[in-house]
Design brief:
With 246 residues, the protein is mainly alpha-helical. The protein is 81% helix and 0% strand.
Length: 246
């Protein structure tokens, strides 16, 4: 059997300390590149601080947007309650405040969920105030930003209502198209679909198509828990129209 002769280390090799040599090389590298390393560390530290500050600012802005939306929503609900109690002037003032606050919240937070919800709320108030052009323009901006599905279908519904109330010939056609398109989402958003059916009923009634109006309204009411005063008025109008002689 052949035995390999182990190579003997020299005195110089025995004196070498690889760990010490590597530490020395690292130290020399740091001394040679101290300025560059210092700048890099400062840049990294500044970047971390900036990111943390941006995150904190974003959180504050999101909380502010939420607070503004909730305030605008509260004003809108107060306007509804005051209107029901027979105080139209005070209701109009509250509705105007809700509209202004919701619009500002949207304009300052267009990429945030609370800003987008505020856009829909401003549309609700704006329609009641008769500001159809502003509402339509704002909702077009919202829908072009590819919002979440729930906000999108709500925006489409209010777009249809605004077009219906502006009542140009093209507006009414577009409103019908919007209402019809919303029926495809009836499984996921039944209340939105019910409101769309109510819109189709109103359009048919305005065209004196009583059978279609009644059919749409009855389908709408079947999906809703309550019948509003206006829907009862629509049914009364249909009953009266159907009772008239040819």
């Amino acid at each position: 059997m052949v035995h390999r002769t182990r190579k003997r280390l020299t005195k110089t090799e025995l004196k070498r300390d690889p760990v010490a040599e590597n530490l020395e090389k690292a130290w020399n590298f740091c001394r040679e590149h101290l300025k560059a390393l210092s700048i890099t560390l400062v840049v990294v530290a500044v970047g971390i601080v900036a990111i943390q500050a941006a995150v904190r600012t974003s959180h504050r802005q999101n909380e502010d947007a939420m607070a503004r939306y909730l305030m605008a929503d509260m004003l809108y609900e107060q306007a509804e309650q005051v209107a029901m109690s027979g105080q139209p002037q005070q209701a109009s003032q509250l509705l105007g405040q809700s509209y202004t606050l919701a619009t500002q919240t949207w304009e300052q937070n267009q990429n945030r969920i609370w800003g987008r919800r505020a856009c829909v709320l401003s549309a609700k108030a704006g329609i009641l105030l008769g500001r159809y052009d502003e509402v339509i323009t704002r909702l077009q901006q919202l829908m072009s930003s590819r919002p979440q599905q729930q906000i999108e279908v709500s925006a489409r519904l209010h777009m249809a209502v605004a077009l219906e109330n502006r009542a140009g010939s093209e507006d009414l056609l577009n409103a019908r198209d919007n209402y019809t398109a919303l029926l495809a989402d009836s499984a996921d958003f039944p209340l939105i679909a019910a409101e769309a059916m109510g819109g189709l009923a109103r359009l048919s009634l305005a065209e004196s198509d009583i059978p279609s109006a009644r059919a749409w309204l009855e389908r709408s009411l079947a999906m809703k828990a309550d019948t509003t005063d206006f829907e009862e008025y629509m049914l009364a109008r249909m009953d009266w129209a159907e009772g008239q002689p040819e």
